[in-house]
Specification:
This protein has helices at about 1-45, 50-70, 80-95, 100-125, 130-150, 175-200, 200-210, 215-220, 225-250, 260-270, 280-295, 300-315, 320-334, and strands at about 160, 250. The longest helix is centred in the N-terminal third of the chain and has 43 residues, at about 1-45. The protein has one domain: ABC transporter involved in vitamin B12 uptake, BtuC (Orthogonal Bundle). Helices cover about 75% and strands about 0% of the residues. Keywords: Cell membrane, Membrane, Transmembrane, Transmembrane helix.
Amino acid sequence: MNSSTTNIAPAHLAEVRVSFRTAGFAALAMFAILAALPLLTLVTGDAFVLVVATRIMIFALAALSLDLILGFGALVSFGHAAFVGIGAYAVAILNAYGVNDLLVQSLVAVAVAALFALVTGAISLRTRGVYFIMITLAFGQMLYFLMISLSAFGGDDGYTLPARSTVLGMPLLENNLVMFYTVLAVLVGAFLLARMLIASRFGRVLRGTRDNAVRMQAIGFSPSPYQLTAYVIAGSIAALAGVLLANQVEFVSPAYMSWQRSGELIVMVVLGGMGTLAGPIAGAAAFILLEEWLSSFSQHWKLGFGLILLLVVLFSKGGVGGLVKRLLGGAHHG
């Protein structure tokens, strides 16, 4: 029995290390492609590529934050878009009061999102399974309807920003190229932070809780503090995505925090591969590119997207990330 356990543990650790290495290489490849994209716009003269790529990275940031709790903590939140909305409205509300600096707006957004996550997470984590899903949905919808009621900020019609945020008093983000690389830098930073957290003792406990919460309690770890910490960190990162989204489109709407948007973030994580960190980035890219492509054929593009998602779930375990890993594994063995 002891020798069996001794043999299994190193094998499992080795598998985790290989998985982390593969995810790291995949993320590095994606970041390199993204960093080189502006060269493509210079060659083709199509600025729309830069706009779509920036949007992909913003939603990749939000999906990455969700993967922290969904892929590694097995917490299915249907209210995660609320944190994106908090970040967006932090920009709008501060802008209305004359505070236009991106760093200040980001700090306020992260602080408010962390507080909201701490309070709602502490309550939500008292439940499990479908009850957790429903209570996160309820908190998200409460915030959604609160923003609709704020007529000073456009209510249901949303709020148009007069300009993008400034950086140290300079309107640097008005340049789409600067905006692009700012979003890329934040995405890379969030990925490295998430990777460091998951590789740490904290991440090992979180993964252990996902696999078997009862066993983790039996060896002396209480899952709730770890899950709550992950929930707060995920909400804070999602708020940064909201800050960047508001600046890219120069518009803020309660729709950013609707349950449908939360559902889309879950789809991005599942599509790319849960519990991989690199997967949500690929999932966000696949989601938005498919949306752009399918919507050019019909206004009922979601039907076609649903069929594609169904095929991915049925025939590609681990989503797009799992498919790439199998292809790389096949090429390696070949």
